[in-house]
Write a structure and sequence with these properties.
By secondary structure, the protein is of the alpha/beta class. It has 13 helices and 15 strands. The structure holds pyridoxal-5'-phosphate.
């Protein structure tokens, strides 16, 4: 089976992990700091705080922006469930903004309409979480303008978009947001096994998240509420978590990071080849907006069902049958039983629901060979007859 995505671990990655394993620190040592600096300097953001995964990053981001019971958080229905769950962890209510059909990203026009209604009903969101679906940035300029008009904060869920660019800036620069998060899960662009990072230009947010990631404990003399009682002294000043990344993972991350630009370039090359080979078939190919460079975490095709004799379920099964590890990203979050039980029902985001009926993620990963890609194209041609 040709998988839809796959990590690439080289000997240099292994060497770097082994070196860390035999060093003085395997967690809370220098490798985490180095990795944080790699990421923040690459994207051009002041602060990067590494955490155990992107779900933890989203959770801490919500806490740092003051999300709590009685608050509303809006996100995209076409995302991994973590983009919505982070608000629920804080006791807030979630709602969903429909996507644009051609980019699969949160639609600024739908957002604007929903905000108008919300303002009338006094139900404005505290935080909006745009998700950079498949590796392409949302229209952050527009979303940022709305945030100024309506006074909400922005967390970019850039789990897919490590190495992507928007309007001349790297995704993660936080030019248009308060916080951006990346994921380093093995299917994503680069990996630390499990891992994530919170990026922000706010010193206050960076300090708070650094504390929250480690039990809200501080030893910093300037931060203590009581007097330093001795060299053993530390204070737990809030209710934090153990959301730390280990040095073992960070060493893998820094080593992988050196190849980030090559990976993204290779993904773009594969996407170009797909565009050329698939354009004559009854499928819609992903649209890239102006001034945007996608990291192509996913390559998503949409079936034009009116021209295809089989259902999506049949096309999907046929492709799997031919050894193509196709997948689906994602089931609209509010279709999930947990969200259904909170009162969501079908019909609220028609574009997202139509997307779900048509979308298929086909294999794309940096070590994909020409032959593998030919096999994928060939199989799709047969499956969509
Ligand atoms: C993978 C992913 C997450 C969660 O990342 P983890 O590091 O696995 O916690 C969140 N949001 C999106 C859009 C993702 O793809």
């Amino acid at each position: 089976m040709i998988p839809y995505g796959k990590q690439d671990i080289l000997q240099e990655d292994i060497d770097s992990v082994v070196e860390t394993l035999t060093s003085d620190f395997i967690t809370q040592g220098p490798a985490v700091k180095r990795f944080e600096e790699d990421v923040s300097s690459y994207v051009g953001c002041l602060y990067g705080i590494a955490v155990s995964n992107a779900t933890a990053a989203l959770h801490l981001a919500c806490i740092a922006l003051g999300v709590g019971p009685g608050d509303l958080v809006w996100t995209s229905p076409i995302s991994f469930v973590a983009s919505a769950n982070c608000a629920r962890y804080c006791g807030a209510e979630v709602d969903f903004v429909d996507i644009e059909p051609d980019t699969f990203n949160m639609c600024p026009i739908s957002l604007s309409k929903k905000l108008e209604d919300a303002k009338r009903n006094n139900r404005l969101p505290k935080v909006v979480i745009p998700v950079h679906m498949a590796g392409q940035s949302c229209k952050m300029h527009e979303i940022n303008n709305l945030s100024k008009q309506y006074g909400f904060k922005i967390i970019e869920d850039a789990s897919h978009a490590v190495g992507a660019e928007y309007r001349g800036n790297k995704v993660g620069s936080c030019k248009y947001s308060d916080i951006t998060v990346f994921s380093f899960h093995p299917v994503k662009i680069i990996t630390t096994g499990e891992g994530g990072v919170v990026l922000t230009n706010s010193e206050r947010i960076a300090k708070e998240i650094t504390k929250l990631r480690s039990h809200s404990i501080t030893r910093d003399a300037c931060e203590l509420e009581d007097n330093m009682q001795g060299d053993w002294y530390y204070e737990q000043q809030g209710l934090g978590f153990n959301y730390r990344l280990t040095d073992i993972q960070a060493a893998l991350g820094s080593s992988q990071f050196k190849r980030l630009d090559d990976y993204v370039a290779k993904r773009n090359q594969l996407a170009d080849t797909y565009r050329g080979s698939l354009s004559s078939l009854p499928i819609k190919l992903p649209t890239i907006i102006d001034d945007s460079y996608s990291s192509y975490h996913l390559y998503i095709i949409r079936l034009k069902s009116e021209y295809i004799n089989s259902t999506k379920k049949e096309v999907f099964a046929a492709l799997r049958g031919m050894g193509i590890g196709v997948n689906l990203h994602y089931i609209p979050i509010y279709f999930q039983p947990y969200y259904r039980n909170l009162g969501f029902s079908k019909g609220i985001c028609p574009n997202a629901e139509e997307y779900y009926d048509q979308a298929i993620s086909i294999p794309i990963f940096p070590t994909m060979t020409k032959d593998q890609q030919l096999a994928v194209v060939d199989s799709i041609r047969k499956a969509v007859k």
